[in-house]
Amino acid sequence: MRVVLGVSGGIAAYKACSLLRLFTESGHDVTVVPTAAALSFVGAPTWAALSGKPVSTDVWTDVHEVPHVRIGQQADVVVVAPATADLLAKAAHGLADDLLTNTLLTARCPVVLAPAMHTEMWHHPATRANVATLRERGVHVIDPAEGRLTGKDTGAGRLPDPDVLYAAVLAIVDAFPDAPPALDGASAREGAAGDVTPGASSAASGLWSGRKVVVSAGGTREPLDPVRYLGNRSSGKQGVAIARAAAARGAEVTLVAANVTLPAPDGVRVVAVGTTLELQEAMTAAAADADLVVMAAAPADFRPATMQASKIKKGDDGEGLRLELVENPDIVRGLVADRARRGTSRPLIVSFAAETGDSSGSVLDHARAKFARKGSDLQVTNEVGFDKAFGLDDNTVHLLLRGSDEVHTVGPASKDDVADAVLDAVEPLF
């Protein structure tokens, strides 16, 4: 794959070096096109050494080869990481005063922009308008992550980790159709998600286009006091991967994210929640007109009966702390019951079961019992533990389908591959 890696002038330019290595070590041909400002952070010799190609920022170098046109025309994907507020503004308004902005105008392949800037700049109305304009034209703008920024500040605006960007770019390229975008500026990748149209045959034929998909991800937190909470170790990676895969197939995707710090997939609407009751409310509302619900989040089974208004202090008697817990609602069973009350077969419901084996049964024994109780159409079971599933990039799952005794095992595989396997299993149900 021929990759153009654009780098604009932000402190996060150093992360682009790791992204470049991920592409080159996987055998991709990478041309780095930095802006002049980017070279103030990472010099041209570094880009040339890592890519194995000469580096230029202007349109006058090797002008006989017309690089300002050729580079974009020959690319399979153009990625700009980091994309500063200035770069976004230039791209949105079609300005072309250097080699990178010229390349953005000539590219007829997927264009992926990964913004990185201070939180106030990201939330500024001008930046939001520029992002909206770019997305309307079919450009993939990946929301920045939240975390430590320049200096002591934290917030939204951090460049996502290189491995997250790498996976997102590969998914976008895989979903891109063979035909190039229309030259009049309209996107040839029309789909309900607004940014991505699927490349798979089932999606290209319209199976996923326009379908409303709701995915939950992450782990809920039940507050004990203003400082502490009961929770679990779910990172949300699998749910985010499913949301990304559904959007790539052309679905209109809502991601209900419980304490997830990962960047939102391109073109996906995000609803942030904290507790299990908040997750239940958001899922119930979003599922009302959905075609598919994937409950990949890990809601807490119990919550404190009361939350203390102030921090719980240690006592001097050494007796410890006793907590009264109450059971949280079963969100999947509630969604199944709501569907039954409406007398409809939609939405299709996919449940997740994180299980451990014990003296009373194996992982699959417990999974089958849970599947029977919940009433979902498909259950994804994964074995969890201190070194399994949670937070890792790979996963092994067992798929149980309503009305079938067969168990389909997927993995060990990446969570993106697991996501595709889950959606493949759903397709016959449509």
UniProtKB/TrEMBL annotation:
Record's keyword annotation contains Metal-binding: yes
InterPro entries reported in the protein's UniProt record: CoaB-like_sf, CoaBC, DNA/pantothenate-metab_flavo_C, Flavin_trans-like, Flavoprotein
Sequence segments annotated as region (Phosphopantothenate--cysteine ligase): 213-430
Name of the protein this chain belongs to: Coenzyme A biosynthesis bifunctional protein CoaBC
Entry annotated with the keyword Plastid: no
Organism expressing this protein natively: Intrasporangium calvum (strain ATCC 23552 / DSM 43043 / JCM 3097 / NBRC 12989 / NCIMB 10167 / NRRL B-3866 / 7 KIP)
Cofactor binding summary note: Binds 1 FMN per subunit.
Keyword terms of this UniProt record: Decarboxylase, Flavoprotein, FMN, Ligase, Lyase, Magnesium, Metal-binding, Multifunctional enzyme
Region annotated Phosphopantothenoylcysteine decarboxylase, chain positions: 1-212
Domain Flavoprotein: 1-147
EC number(s) from the headed UniProt entry: 4.1.1.36, 6.3.2.5
Pathway: Cofactor biosynthesis; coenzyme A biosynthesis; CoA from (R)-pantothenate: step 3/5; Cofactor biosynthesis; coenzyme A biosynthesis; CoA from (R)-pantothenate: step 2/5
Catalytic activity: (R)-4'-phosphopantothenate + L-cysteine + CTP = N-[(R)-4-phosphopantothenoyl]-L-cysteine + CMP + diphosphate + H(+); N-[(R)-4-phosphopantothenoyl]-L-cysteine + H(+) = (R)-4'-phosphopantetheine + CO2
Cofactor(s) required, per the database record: Mg(2+); FMN
Protein's gene: coaBC
Phylogenetic lineage: Bacteria, Bacillati, Actinomycetota, Actinomycetes, Micrococcales
